């Protein structure tokens, strides 16, 4: 099955969606399912049996069923996958339950998505009629029309510890240039998808633009020097959760991000976002000729033509900065 998984990934990367999807669905079918990262640290025998009994098959009806959706991948994947709650309900599901990663809990509780938050326990899995993996739901609904824009837009705005003022006659742009993952072992797109802050220097000379660092994690000494030199506002001390980040993003005219959770979050909020993709980007973003994605109507894709070659990508973005309204 591991070999089948690699074959599926290659076919999806080559744009052979139907062939890749068929292999992925086979791997996660009741017949072939063996184990999953969702079971790490838990009773594999008990949970494995429940999974094999209840994994939602590709063409299985969800009419009047209690569906427990499980996330497969990182935070960005989870942000994308929760959109399928609406697809499942439209298809007739009685209830859709999730046990989200902690950073997503506040956002989901404050969204309009038809979701019930519930712990991933053997008892709750047994109560559910079917268990659905988010990555397989993405394949199930790949050809469907995109769900409404801004599906994670908060219902109520929380009290903010920080809000972005509106500098006169300046566009406000947030930037994310690297992910917290650092190796291929933690993410197969690393270290290729991250860039150095210095790669973005051509953007910082643009007139009538105020940049805001949305970068998670500790900044390096060199990054701090550049942030100070180009008067980039560092928001890190005010962002303690994805909910805080969402509030900051909604005050911006544009978010520029590598292919990471912040790009997905901006898209899910329907905030204008430029997703900067490395040459080995995920298959979900389509082929080189696609400038946009049906996943997020507010997202524009900027792609490397050669692995590691960020300069042409940044130059292309710089040529379009003046198109951003403020």
From TrEMBL:
Keyword Transferase included in the entry's annotation: yes
Gene3D superfamilies on file: Glycogen Phosphorylase B (3.40.50.2000)
Keyword terms of this UniProt record: Transferase
One of the record's GO molecular function terms: transferase activity
Superkingdom of this protein's organism: Bacteria
Pfam family, one: Glyco_transf_9
This protein's name: Glycosyl transferase family 9 (Putative heptosyltransferase)
Species annotation: Paraburkholderia unamae
